[in-house]
Amino acid sequence: MFSIFKRKRPQEPAAPEAAPAAPAAAETPPAGARVDAPATPVADTPATNAPATDASAADAAPAMPDVAGLQDSTLAAPDAPAGYVEPIAEPDVPLVPEVPVMGALPVAPEPEPVPAEPAPADQAPAAAAKKSWLSRLKQGLSRTGQSIGGLFVGVKVDEALFEDLESALIMADAGMEATGRLIAALRARVRKDRIEDAGQVKAALRDLLAEHLAPLEKSFPLGSVQPLVVMIAGVNGAGKTTSIGKLANTFQRQGASVLLAAGDTFRAAAREQLVEWGARNNVTVIAQDGGDPAAVAFDAVNAGRARQAGVVMIDTAGRLPTQLHLMEELKKIRRVIGKADPAAPHEVLLVIDGNTGQNAIAQIRAFDAAIGLTGLVVTKLDGTAKGGTLAAVAAGSQGVRPIPVYWIGVGEGLDDLQPFVAREFAAALVA
Ligand SMILES: Nc1nc2c(ncn2[C@@H]2O[C@H](COP(=O)(O)OP(=O)(O)OP(=O)(O)O)[C@@H](O)[C@H]2O)c(=O)[nH]1
């Protein structure tokens, strides 16, 4: 199985298998120390081909350090104030794929593929697990669910019902566009089908909501390329690192080998969280103390290619869209990933806290403008989330693109990140 990079292993030699041309390994500073510009790009590392004199390339590709370098923070950190990263010129880095750029990395065997379909004997527990997370989703959305679903109890199908429904959808953060569309479609359905029973109106609303949300449903393209490079962003505390851990577990169970990059170089706890998670689950984590998150991402993509990983997931530090310098940094990370693999990142995910309400729309717009999102992960729908925000996204509310929702989070457990299924979500929202 995979070996894990623990950041501090003082009892071990600094770089037992380090490439001879990597003086950084010999001069490894104490963990946590910042290191200025990369001393020497690893000369015999053809994958980067970064000319030593090309400062910008060195910035993007800080010397492909050896294992010790990665674990003990010898990756180059630009000498800039914390939180600010100099924009870099685009390095002209011809790439040679499949070269063991992380020559000192022990190459781990692929994990045992797990059959996609559970054996018949496993089907009962699987069904029970599904029921349990669906009920958690229902429970989580129950504030909204009760206020929407509760409207249909003991009432006539009349104008007052439509008005109450309209208010309830707006209160649930569905936004004006989605609410307007849904109510208009519901009125038309009630007229066309001559529905007179409130319970049937409720069922019709559930159907219409499912149809409305369906364009957001998309399965994640695991296995479409190797490695599939996934960049993950979001505001502070949205659930990025936790979701990466859960996804890594899911992907492993689907037979894909996973490599993680601890690109949150600002918050030590986030890095520790990911490294620890990797250690528990036999997943390699590329990490360094402090420094340039773009460099970590660059190394991770190269390591992923060298190791023929199925997925490389790159965590990034939480940031608000209003922190413009941090949004610039995010753009840089995306650009530098593209230096390691011009087709990458293949997926750019935004993790959103489901409790965020309408502000989620502003977040999606800002992150999409900065890094071009390909998918959303909506967490904490087991909490006080009102859930209507996804209807607003599907409606393109306030100019947002209807970006697919790959997963929804319904708890803190490993199995609590589930693929988004429009019909299930609609049923939970209009329970
Ligand atoms: N109830 C619940 N809690 C969740 C869910 N997803 C994440 N969390 C919790 O949310 C908290 C923040 O999660 P993190 O993964 O650390 O968030 P982050 O976005 O990486 O945080 P920063 O690195 O600070 O930006 C943790 O306590 C998680 O356990 C979920 O779906 N449901």
Automatic annotation (TrEMBL):
Membrane topology: Peripheral membrane protein
Domain AAA+ ATPase: 226-404
Keyword hit for Lipid metabolism: no
Keyword Lyase applies: no
Reactions catalysed according to its record: GTP + H2O = GDP + phosphate + H(+)
Signal recognition particle SRP54 helical bundle domain location: 137-213
Entry-linked InterPro entries: AAA+_ATPase (IPR003593), P-loop_NTPase (IPR027417), Signal_recog_particl_SRP54_hlx (IPR013822), SR_rcpt_FtsY (IPR004390), SRP/SRP_N (IPR036225), SRP54_GTPase_dom (IPR000897), SRP54_N_sf (IPR042101)
Pfam family membership, one: SRP54_N
Family according to the record: Belongs to the GTP-binding SRP family. FtsY subfamily.
Function: Involved in targeting and insertion of nascent membrane proteins into the cytoplasmic membrane. Acts as a receptor for the complex formed by the signal recognition particle (SRP) and the ribosome-nascent chain (RNC). Interaction with SRP-RNC leads to the transfer of the RNC complex to the Sec translocase for insertion into the membrane, the hydrolysis of GTP by both Ffh and FtsY, and the dissociation of the SRP-FtsY complex into the individual components.
Name of this chain's protein: Signal recognition particle receptor FtsY
Organism, as annotated: Candidimonas humi
